[in-house]
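Protocol step 4 of 5: obtain the predicted structure for the target chain.
Materials: sequence only (see below). No template structures provided, no constraints applied. The aim of this step is simply to have a reference model before the mutagenesis design in step 5. Sequence pasted as it appears in the construct record:
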Amino acid sequence: MANQYPGPPPEQPPGQPGQNPYATPPGGPYAEGAYGYPTAPGSTPVYGYPHAAPQQPQPYAQPQPQPAFAATLLTLGDIAVNGDTIVSPAGPMPLRGAVWTATDMSRTEERIPPHAIVLAILFFLLCFIGLLFLLMKERVTTGFVQVSVNSGGRHHSTMIPVQSRDQVVHVLNQVGYAQSISV
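Step 4 output (C-alpha cells):
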C-alpha cells in the first residue's frame, strides 16, 4: 500500500537556505513581518510575501451625481415599472411603446365543502333536513395569470399565482394601467 502521508516537511526547502517555512517566525506568531504584517524598511519578509509600498492616501473626490430615483409605480410579479423604465430580469426596457399582454390561466371550480358533507351526515337522521347542507357550494380559484411585456427589443414573461377571482381582476386591472401609461 502506498504511503498516504509524505512525511515531515523538509528542513531546508530549495531557494531559502537556513529557513524552515513551517517554523514560527522569530518574535512569535504576531511579530512584525509575520502573516502579511509590514516589515521594517530594508528587511525581508518572513514568509517571502512581497510587500507593496505603502499606499498614499487618496484625495477626497467629489461623488458623481446619481440619476434621480423614480418611485415604483407598479409591480407585476418580477416586473417593476419605475418612472419611464420597465425593470425585469431580462434587463431594463423603455416604458414608452411597451406592449403588455395578460393571459388568464386560472380556473374556478364549484364544489360542496367538506364541512357541509359532515353536517349532512349528522343531521340526516333528523327528518332528512340534513340533506339541505348538500346545497352549500364554494368556489375555488386556482392557477396563474401570465403577464408578458415587449419593449426595446426585449421580452419578459412572468406567471402570477392567483387564489380568487378578485386577484385575477386585480392583476388584469394592473396590466390595463400599465398599458395606459405605456402610450
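Step 4 remarks: The two ends are 78 Å apart (CA to CA). The chain has two helices and nine strands.
Proceed to step 5.
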